[in-house]
Amino acid sequence: MSDGTAVLYDTLGPRGRLRVRIASIVCGVLLAALVLLAIVRLEERGQFEPDLWQPFGEWVTWRSLLEGLQATLAAAAVAMALAAPIGLAMALGRLSLNRPTRWLAGGYVELFRAVPLLLFIYFAALGLPRYGIELSAFWYLVLPLVVYNSAVLGEIFRAGILSLDRGQGEAALAIGMTYWQSMLLVVVPQAVRRMVPALVSQLVTLLKDTSLGFVIPYAELLRTGQINGQFYGNLLQMTTVVALIYVAVNVSLGRVAVRLERRQARRYGSAGPHAVLGESDVALLAARAGDGRERAGL
Amino acid sequence: MGVVLDNLDRYADAFWVTVQLTALGFLGSLVLGTIVATMRVSPVAPLRAAGLVYVETFRNTPLLVLAVLFVFGLTKVGIRFSLFTTFVIVISIYTGAFVAETLRAGMNTVGRGQVEAARSIGLTFGQSLREVVLPQAFRTVVQPLGNVWIAMTKNTSIAAAVSVVDLTAVAGRLTTDLARPLPLFAGAAIGYLILTLPMGALVGALERRVAIVR
């Protein structure tokens, strides 16, 4: 797929090569000029003063940022660990044979998926104490993350289950398994495995969303950076470094997702009934799934 | 819901802010995303590299980090807009990266034969992109693109974290004063549903209309 666009232009002839080379040089110079302009502008405003960058030469700063990163990762890990089983339960509920169960699970997923996460977090942090529910900042962040992500994961799992060949569930029933046996022993393990790349993408989204802990405030990476930035008077530099840490962590996670996707594609073949699903396929499948009357081969 | 009705004017103002954020973010991210997607498939190497850096950077940075960077950081270098404008710029840049990736995925689904045919009747790179590839790419990505913008509508709530008074901010502020969290937040949630539900329906209808059956 990655070379699908290479066909947009043929192997170039001498004149075409010359044109592309000229365009490359012109664009390269323009981009370099843009970067240079930004640097000059920053320099004029004294943003490269050694004072502003000096904190990054000290272990104290990095230890503080690493603690922030640790808090970020902890919130993301706990939220994912709690949201995944709930999401799976919701997916099974939406595909259940029992109508009230289907409606309840469907209502949960549709409602909590549709509301902005930050609204939940404000509700938890500002609203719950009014009802006498006092939690730590960590849980004010993690609870909304769990509610929201369990709804999203519910859709991912449902898409995975629906994408499985009907024959899998039917065969399990035919050899005498009960509904639950066939689901838990045959359908779900295959569905989950197939959705691993989509789950990792969702993990990246979740990790980014932990930055909303900033508003509670929960001392995750962004908040820690902000505090450091105010202390050293270098908010711009500190926030830039924080952004780069996020990019580094998420790009590595993304790499893992791509590698898993390739490994699965190798193992199960890249097309046909065993295709591995990416993010956009989840959306398509979920859309096609309609109102949940389908039962994943059961 | 009495508290919501009592403050309906504040909710209406905030809803209008959210609508504006959504509309401007939609336009900004569509323009940026299309440009970056074109860069990513162009034969000019520096443009491809710049497009890749753009997508990888902004897709992997949390929106709130970008917002904080722009609101608190860039004022230090004399780039100063209103909070509202700053957030529109930030959400356009952020969502633009997702639009670009979705469009590129769409381009990859356009059959090789289509492009080869376009090339063989003598269309240039720009022509085959404009006349053949992009129209088909847009059609295959209606659903995923729609999802990107529905997610963006929900993401406009992050404006509240940098003091733009949108629906989320109003619910938070009124809660501090009135101590009736549940109806207040439900009111804001309904505001978002008023936007996202028709968007979802529209995307579905559009998808059925323009989908290419292969």
From TrEMBL, chain A:
Keywords from the named record: Cell membrane, Membrane, Transmembrane, Transmembrane helix, Transport
Presence of keyword Translocase: no
Membrane topology: Multi-pass membrane protein
GO molecular function: transmembrane transporter activity
Gene3D superfamilies found in the cross-reference section: MetI-like (1.10.3720.10)
Gene Ontology biological-process entries: amino acid transport
Occurrences of domain ABC transmembrane type-1 (ranges): 69-257
One Pfam family, short name: BPD_transp_1
PANTHER family assigned to the protein according to its UniProt record, in alphabetical order: AMINO ACID ABC TRANSPORTER PERMEASE, MEMBRANE COMPONENT OF AMINO ACID ABC TRANSPORTER
Protein family according to the UniProt entry: Belongs to the binding-protein-dependent transport system permease family.
Protein name: ABC transporter, permease protein (Cluster 3, basic aa/glutamine/opines)
The species this protein was found in: uncultured Thermoleophilia bacterium
Species classification: Bacteria, Bacillati, Actinomycetota, Thermoleophilia, environmental samples
